[in-house]
Amino acid sequence: MSAFDKTGIFSSQHNITHNSLAFEKMCVLFNVAAMMSQVAGNQDLDIDDGLKLSMKYFQLASGTFQFIKDHVVSVIPQGPTPDFTQDTLDALVALMLAQAQEVCFMKAAKDQMKDSVIAKVAAQTGDYYAAALKLMQKDQARPCWDKDWIPLVAAKQAGFLAIAHYYQSLVHKAVLEYGEELSHLKAATDLIVNSRKCFDTVHWPFRNTELAVQRAHESAKRDNDFIYHVVVPEAKKLAAIPRASLVKQVQPAFPLSHGFIELFHPLVPNPTSSCTIC
Fold first, then answer.
1. pLDDT in tens, 124-164
2. Which of 3, 12, 54, 144 has a CB 3.0–4.6 Å from the CB of 34, allowing a cystine?
3. Can you give the pTM of this predicted structure?
4. In this structure, are residues 139 and 87 in contact, taking their beta carbons and an 8 Å threshold?
């Protein structure tokens, strides 16, 4: 998801002209955060280095949007443009964090971590997307997004919770708790159906998950009907799947470039050059 989508945030006709270096800094930082999201989203997620860089830049993007949210109000003399409203910035902070956690899930699955660990990471990913979805639907933020953003985020919320239930079912299967296994698979089936309904396009990202859940559910149900005959608890009576958050906002450090050189430093007196523009 890119903040550069011309049909999204920057399609507004509301403009601000303000002669302020502090405001200019906020505008530049917004573009920097958007570019970080682009860099994160364009990594090769089939290799470890790509996964690490993607996690890094999504967290940096989240922290940069948070920095803008904390400082932009004081530098805008009038009502902000849609991209600088508190609701929009809150949503972008949450969305970047959700995508960082999603990459963590990819890493956990790729490394074949324990089923219980993957379930925790997936459940937290679903929670982060739920938080982002709620913020994206607020009145001031909602008009900013391309028409596919909210349905996709809703699909990811349901999809990752389905994945969490699927892996939790494997945890119960390993200790012969077949009733709990089947209940989690039923919950996963319902969630994956909801996910597809939210974003039923060729770009829906859970086709492999859908197939795995369907096969596991059919197999578990058949085994229970013919072999185990255990009582299947209702989903609401299952113990909550624990969560594991592996990401956080990373605030920008200034200067942003390690090789930064102040071009105008030799042209002004030393007392002036040592002053900081807030």
1. 999 999 999 999 999 999 999 999 999 999 999 999 999 99
2. 3
3. 0.89
4. yes
